[in-house]
Amino acid sequence: MKKGLLIISIALLTGNLFAQTARVQVIHNSADAAAAEVDVYVNTDLALDDFAFRTATPFLDLPAGVEINIGIAPGNSTGVGDVLLNVPVTLTENEKYIVVADGIVSASGYNPAPPLSLQVFPMAREMATNPTNVDVLVHHGSTDAPTVDVVETGVGAGTVVDNISYTEYQGYLELPTADYVLDITDETGTVTVARYQAPLATLGLDGAALTVLASGFLDPAQNSNGPAFGLYVASPAGGALLALPSVPLSVSEFDSTEFVIYPNPVNDRLTINASGIDMSEYSVAITDMLGRIVLNGNINTNNTIDVNNLSEGVYNLTLLRGNNVVISKKFVKK
């Protein structure tokens, strides 16, 4: 609640004092343990308190046409004098920006250790330019990952990101809403470093504009056993970043015709039925139409899920084995 009140206060303050504003989303992608939580200042005002790694703000209105200072301080800061990094920026009126914090704060324990920095991307989007597409901005924020390509192998789209290096952005990719398989390769495109599933259609993300970030360490052992490398997604609504699942499980290994959820629409309890499948091996994630996870966890012994606290609307229930997306179904909460 404190964090939410701070965001609202800054938005109201800047909206009242400045006629010109720009829209800005801030994403915390510094994997250094010393920066697990940071405070963010706009000029001398505390804008975000205890802002956690792999979380994003919603788009906020900040002053445009005048220079402002964005400061990053430790999570236990007592004032703007504690900032570790101060970046002066002049935003353009009515423009939209993505700002990502990358890099290392600690003096030792990380290899390599590029310093904490803010990467600013103008011309950001809060929704896709075509409602049948998903617009994807790609950012390389992994300090020990080399220059890489992103090659789509699921539908045969080929190289979608070419030679992206640490701190760089590429995009927006205007992708038809489908389920993709993304290979992260070296810059020659011949050696696959990692593989991820991007189930844009399964998650019902038509019309969304997303930021996909390379995050964490390829070699945690050289980086204080920090968080491992992965691809993470930020939505314009903010909140915790969503991990793209690695090593996707083929849907052909799971008989989708035998997977049923009911009742649909549902009031309070949703039942899962998958004939001949031991559901104890699986978990579920329920996402709203912006791709935000609103409920997740294991399936109980009765194969039911309590959705009574969800607001009315359309949701996706995604079945997972480990981190692998198996199948997804839409349902309506009454």
Structure description:
With 334 residues, this protein is mainly β. The protein folds into 3 domains: 1-124, Immunoglobulin-like, CATH 2.60.40; 125-248; 251-333, Immunoglobulins (Immunoglobulin-like, Sandwich), CATH 2.60.40.10. Helix content is 5%, strand content 47%. The chain has one helix at residues 2-17; strands spanning 21-28, 37-42, 45-52, 55-56, 60-63, 67-74, 85-90, 96-102, 117-122, 133-140, 148-152, 158-164, 169-176, 179-186, 192-199, 209-215, 230-234, 239-240, 242-243, 259-262, 269-274, 283-287, 293-298, 304-306, 313-321, 324-333. Strands 1, 4, 5, 8, 9 and 18 form a 6-stranded mixed β-sheet that branches. A 5-stranded mixed β-sheet has the order 13-10-16-17-19, with no helix packed on it. Strands 3-2-6-7 form a 4-stranded antiparallel β-sheet. Strand 25 and strand 26 (324-333) form a beta hairpin. The longest helix is centred in the first third of the chain and has 16 residues, at 2-17. This is DUF4397 domain-containing protein.
